[in-house]
Amino acid sequence: MSIPVFDPRKGDGSAFHPDTGMQVTPTAKTIEVQYNDGYTQTAGAGINNIMKTYNPHWTNAYQNEGDYINSFLMARQGWQKFYWTPQGETQQLCFTCKTWNYSKASGGYWTMDATFIQCPPL
Q1: Contact, 48 vs 94, CB < 8 A?
Q2: Domain membership flag for residue 107
Q3: What does pTM read for this prediction?
Q4: CA-CA distance, 108 to 62, in Å (whole number)?
Q5: Domain total of the chain
Q6: For residue 61, what is the enclosing H or E element?
Q7: pLDDT at residue number 55
Q8: Average model confidence (pLDDT) for the chain?
Q9: Is 6 within a domain?
Q10: Long-range Cβ pairs for the range 67-75 (8 Å, 24+)
Q11: 40 CB contacts (<8 Å, ≥6 apart)?
């Protein structure tokens, strides 16, 4: 089974990027051992112990753009992985998305937020 690529497009075929200023939160996964004498030993949990969480936000998305984003995330069901190239990155990264929200404003425009959690490389 191939992993799909998240690649929203505008009506003219150009890329529909999230708004600038996207929040990115790196999280380090560590293993810590506390000894009886008060000494603590800490190490990184695996070779890919730092993963990032991205919070893309889209404003003024047209109906078809909002439909694409929502349908793509619904199809992944919160657990299936997908590739995406965040702005400022030079390569596709692997993500899951369990949480997103949207609102439909007047004129058919959508506002959307999501939480993309980076996965270890495959």
Answers
A1: no
A2: yes
A3: 0.86
A4: 7
A5: 1
A6: strand 57-61
A7: 97
A8: 92
A9: no
A10: 68/8, 68/9, 69/8, 69/100, 69/102, 69/112, 69/114, 70/100, 70/102, 70/112, 72/4, 72/6, 72/8, 73/97, 73/100, 73/114
A11: 32, 33, 34
Could you give the CA distance from residue 116 to residue 85 in angstroms, rounded to a whole number? Answer: 11
User: How many Å from the N-terminal Cα to the C-terminal Cα in the chain?
Assistant: 13
Q: Which amino acid is at 42?
A: T
**If pLDDT is split at 50, 70 and 90, which confidence band does 15 have?**
confident
Q: Looking at the DSSP assignment, which residues form a beta bridge with residue 51?
A: 27
Structural domain for 86, as ranges: 23-118
Q: How many residues does the chain have?
A: 122
Does the residue 32 lie in any domain? Answer: yes
Phi, psi at residue 30, to the nearest 5°? Answer: -130, 160
Torsion angles phi and psi, residue 19, rounded to 5: -60, 155
